[in-house]
Amino acid sequence: MASPAKGMKRKAKDTGKPKKPTSSYFYFLEECRRKAKEEGRSLSKIAEFTRECSATWKDITATEKKKFEDKAAADKKRYQKEMESYVPTDDDDVKATKKSKKVKDENKPKRPQSAYFLFLADFRKKMKGKDIENRELLKQAGVEWGKLSKDQKKPFEKLSEVEKGKYDAAMAIYNKVGSKPATAKKSAPAANGTDDDEDDDEEEEDEEDDVDEESDE
């Protein structure tokens, strides 16, 4: 029964509906993944890798974001142009209705950070204010992490275990009590934010799916 369901999912993607525009954040994620592959880094821990890239995105300057924003603007124009001549099918209408009902569960506990990710956050604080590109910073962080002895890594590992313990306890309560659906609210974009920020979580999930599909091939 699993195979037909999977086939139906693939078929739904093969409609004539124009592909949604890619945000500047997602363009950044694509480059982040490409650079990681070039450096020979493992992408097996998708959630951890995506959180690392997300933290980097929030830390880079407006100048560094510009090239990704330019790509996003061009893709948005492409999408708007294609949508002008697009006629929705019944399948697309049903899919759009289901998606509109999907609301993010804000009560679900956030996953704990790994020892390396905690180290990276600490390393980033130490490097703050220094004239260094994020790609080089991540590379240096990876090198420094590799140089640490087991004893030097213990503080980060212990902190990660503490976070995991809190997460497991929170999830036990969450699963027992059950989640309360969050109320969908339409709010104006933050003054110092971008339209991309509200889609970050959804796009991170898309990023994980993309990597999973590549590994299956």
Automatic annotation (TrEMBL):
Family annotation (SMART domains): HMG
Comp. bias intervals (Basic and acidic residues): 67-84
Region (Disordered): 1-22, 67-110, 177-217
Keywords annotated in UniProt: DNA-binding, Nucleus
DNA-binding region ranges: 18-87, 109-175
GO CC field: nucleus
Bias (Low complexity): 179-191
UniProt cross-references to PROSITE patterns, sorted A to Z: HMG_BOX_2
GO function terms (MF aspect): DNA binding
Biased amino acid composition, Acidic residues: 194-217
Coiled coil: none
Domain HMG box: 18-87, 109-175
One of the GO BP terms on file: regulation of transcription by RNA polymerase II
Protein name, entry field: HMG box domain-containing protein
Source organism per UniProt: Lottia gigantea
Lineage of the organism: Eukaryota, Metazoa, Spiralia, Lophotrochozoa, Mollusca
